[in-house]
UniProtKB/TrEMBL annotation:
Protein name: Solute-binding protein family 5 domain-containing protein
Entry superkingdom: Bacteria
GO biological process: peptide transport
A Pfam short name: SBP_bac_5
The entry's keywords: Membrane, Signal, Transmembrane, Transmembrane helix, Transport
Stretches assigned to the Solute-binding protein family domain: 148-519
GO molecular function: peptide transmembrane transporter activity
One GO CC annotation: periplasmic space
Chain ranges passing through the membrane: 59-79
Length: 614
């Protein structure tokens, strides 16, 4: 301030030294006529630089610049201390999906991986599983709590939920969806999960579910996608699978349908979605999503390496070395496993438990996991493996039964039970045969197996490994590779001798559909056609059990029964591998209950950032 107060005097001094170079008008403008004024007016400032020499002007300019730059340091420090880098709206994400969609409809979607993936993004549900496998709220306002009888559950809905066409989601939509799933005319794969469940409307945003019997894992069944009644209510069952809305969906999820592209043959090549600005959990950061569909992993991998897409829905462990583009390999554990399920009704040799035991002993699972999936998996020896329980659950102490690998023991079991090795005139491999009585006739059985699996690299490689292992003990093995749709037809009809296939148990496992004797026919999933009355009783008890400690003990008893009876050989649980571009941020994966659960929280993914005030 003292410096500024001396400016008028400084101007006077400079004016005197300027002499002839400053005329009277300039003097008046710079000095002013009112000597009582302590602060120069704007006219004086305007002519100030005219009385400075060039060096003085440079010095003053440098001095002002230093002051300005010095002031930026605390300003920058203040800005950085009071802001943080965070996601912002913008960008796009493109993913390659192996397979093709048929129905973007949550009632039909569970039959197809591509449908499940897109339905998880387009539709919302009452509850969902987060990236750690925990049950969290979606459209529900709080967690349904069972009534005193353990058979009634009330659910309240959030009141700010909009469908993509602007209509409001209410209890009527939930009731409509449940009853549609329960109607056998619609052929929903979810029908068994809601069978016998009654639903009633309390008010526009509250509903009540009533079960026939207590069912511990019931809340997991409330993760179905909700359909809009005003769109689907007038479509009859016969027209349901063919309705245009199956490929131009209206949902209430974070992204809404924009466009669909087909090739000249009518096959779907690409589906585009855009962020739903009225999404009840907040507008997604990424503006647009696109999903391109590929016939196999090789073509999807090429698209990723060429930069055509930012991610692949799944890659086999053997192919991770072929990822050439810069990538993040997201990994998460699914409650699933792969096993060989035996159909003892079709192959009489497999009805001999000794044969099944020998086949199991012939498999080196440690080597199988190392060679086929590059150690990206866990050995499985029972129908309810330990990893289906969370770390905070009493099931964390649950132990997996051990499985032996012993080639010589396998051979001895076969020999001691009449399966003698004989030379085969057509191949270099010996075959095993056994004479058995069928009524009054004597019949010679040849020990050979037809193994069916799906055309997926890891499963095909696993099938070839099993073939080699079994032929080492004299069991001739033929491999039949089927496309997923063809395999589904064989499974529905139970037309296989041995089936190499996977099962997803769910985060809160209910093995009833997989192992109860009532589920041996379609739509049941008892692929081994297993029937044991003691096991049935345990499965029925497990369904009603709500005490975690008791359920663990019942799981343990059930596992012992199945591993003793050996209706299947349990192999491994692969880690789910999901490659994405490093520019896609915010992906959080750990444990999920299905592949489509990778999209839980997709509204928080982002590609763009900016500084936000704290």
């Amino acid at each position: 301030m003292k410096l500024l107060q001396n400016i008028p005097g400084f101007l006077v001094q400079k004016t005197r030294s300027a002499g002839l170079f400053l005329n009277n008008l300039t003097k008046k403008l710079v000095l002013g006529e009112n000597n009582s004024q302590n602060w120069p007016n704007r006219y004086q400032w305007r002519h100030f630089f005219k009385i400075l020499s060039r060096n003085e002007q440079r010095f003053l300019g440098f001095f002002i610049l230093v002051i300005f730059l010095s002031s930026l340091v605390p300003l920058r420090s203040f800005y950085l201390n009071h802001t943080e880098i965070g996601p912002t709206n913008g960008g796009a994400y493109a993913e390659a999906i192996i397979g093709a969609p048929r129905y973007l409809n949550p009632v039909l979607a569970p039959a197809n991986d591509a449908d499940r993936d897109l339905s998880a993004i387009i539709y919302s549900s009452l509850l969902e599983r987060d990236s750690h496998g925990n049950l969290i709220l979606d459209t529900a306002t709080d967690y349904p709590i069972a009534g005193p009888d353990q058979k009634t559950y009330e659910v309240s809905l959030k009141e700010n939920i909009k469908w993509h066409d602007g209509e409001t989601l209410t209890a009527d939509d939930v009731i409509f969806t449940v009853r549609l799933i329960q109607n056998p005319d619609y052929n929903s794969p979810l029908r068994i999960s809601l069978s016998g469940v009654e639903i009633e409307k309390i008010n526009d945003y509250t509903i009540r579910f009533t079960l026939k019997n207590p069912y511990g894992p019931f809340l997991d069944n409330l993760t179905f996608g909700i359909l809009p009644q005003h769109i689907w209510g007038k479509i009859p069952p016969a027209s349901f699978p063919l309705a245009e809305q199956n490929l131009k969906p209206i949902g209430s999820g974070p992204y809404k349908f924009k466009d669909i592209q087909k090739d000249s043959a009518g096959k779907i090549k690409k589906i585009e979605l855009v962020a739903f600005s009225d999404y009840f959990s907040g507008r997604p950061f990424i503006n647009a999503l696109s999903f391109s569909f590929y016939k196999d992993e090789a073509t999807a991998l090429a698209a990723f390496n060429n930069g055509e897409v930012d991610g692949i829905n799944l890659i086999s462990a053997s192919n991770t070395g072929n990822l050439k583009a810069d990538f993040n390999l997201n990994k998460f554990i699914l409650p699933r496993y792969f096993a060989v399920f035996f159909n003892q009704d079709i192959n009489k040799a497999l009805a001999d438990k000794n044969v099944r035991q020998a086949l199991s002993l012939a498999i080196n699972k440690t080597e199988l996991i190392e060679k086929i999936i590059n150690n990206q998996g866990t050995e499985i020896n029972s129908p309810l493996p330990y990893f289906v329980f969370s770390k905070d659950d009493p099931g964390a102490s649950y132990s997996e039964p051990a499985q032996d690998f012993d080639i010589e023991k396998a051979k001895n079991i076969l020999e001691s039970n009449g399966w003698s090795s004989t030379e085969n005139g057509t191949t270099s491999l010996p075959v095993r045969q056994k004479a058995v009585k069928t009524g009054k006739e004597q019949e010679t059985l040849t020990l050979e197996i037809s193994l069916v699996t799906v055309d997926w690299p890891e499963l095909v490689a696993t099938a070839n490994y099993l073939k080699s292992s079994w032929e080492n003990i004299g069991v001739k093995t033929d491999i039949i590779i089927k496309q997923p749709t063809e395999a589904q037809e064989l499974i529905r009809a139970r037309q296989y001798q041995a089936l190499l296939f996977g099962q997803i148990l769910g985060a809160d496992p209910d093995p009833f559909a997989f192992w109860h004797s009532s589920q041996t026919k379609d739509p049941g999933l008892n692929l081994a056609l297993y029937a044991n009355s003691d096991a049935d009783k345990l499965l029925e008890t497990i369904r009603r059990e709500t005490d975690p400690q008791k359920k663990i003990a019942e799981f343990d008893q059930f596992n012992k029964l199945v591993t003793q009876d050996l209706p299947a050989i349990f192999l491994y649980s692969p880690i789910y591998l999901y490659p994405t571009s490093p520019r896609i941020k915010g992906i959080e994966l750990n444990n999920s209950n299905s592949p489509s659960a990778r999209f839980v929280g997709i509204e928080k993914w982002y590609t763009k950032t900016k500084r936000h005030w704290k």
